[in-house]
Amino acid sequence: xxxxxxxxxxxxxxxxxxxxxxxxxxxxxxxxxxxxxxxxxxxxxxxxxxxxxxxxxxxxxxxxxxxxxxxxxxxxxxxxxxxxxxxxxxxxxxxxxxxxxxxxxxxxxxxxxxxxxxxxxxxxxxxxxxxxxxxxxxxxxxxxxxxxxxxxxxxxxxxxxxxxxxxxxxxxxxxxxxxxxxxxxxxxxxxx
Length: 192
Ligand SMILES: [Zn+2]
What we know:
Radius of gyration: 23 Å
Shape: elongated
Helix content: 25-40%
Order of helices and strands: EHEHEEEHEHHH
Number of helices: 6
Strand order of the largest sheet: 1-2-3-4-5-6
Bound molecules: zinc ion
Number of strands: 6
Distance between the termini: 85 Å
């Protein structure tokens, strides 16, 4: 049985309010594209060091039903995320653009128990519990957060050691760093 041939395909509205309530229990498949600003994803906004014009994430989603052997048809969600956020570079402590280009596949299951039973070692797809008011915005934000580097850094050779001289926020920090060797010397003299 191929339900895709009979099921209507619904276009998802890119409005954040609509993305928070997607009915994944309805007998229909979905597709949609949109763009989310950093401000529209509060947990991501907390991580951002600064927000430049154009920062944010394009997303694209599509669902289809897949026939699994000896069981009901499962709904598959494909999600692609592509965009930019600024984080603090852990090497030079300046803003650093982080570009993401991620693709994820999920399988929609009916219950938490079913999700818990899902094999952990399946790297192809992760389970999500379907509901009539599924928060797809939260899922998109989760995937962006999970894709951020643990230690954000400029590519090698692209740090900005002197940027703080011209900046306002970083000026004091930069000055302190340059003074450090002398402070250390002074302290050594005091202590000797
Ligand atoms: Zn850097």
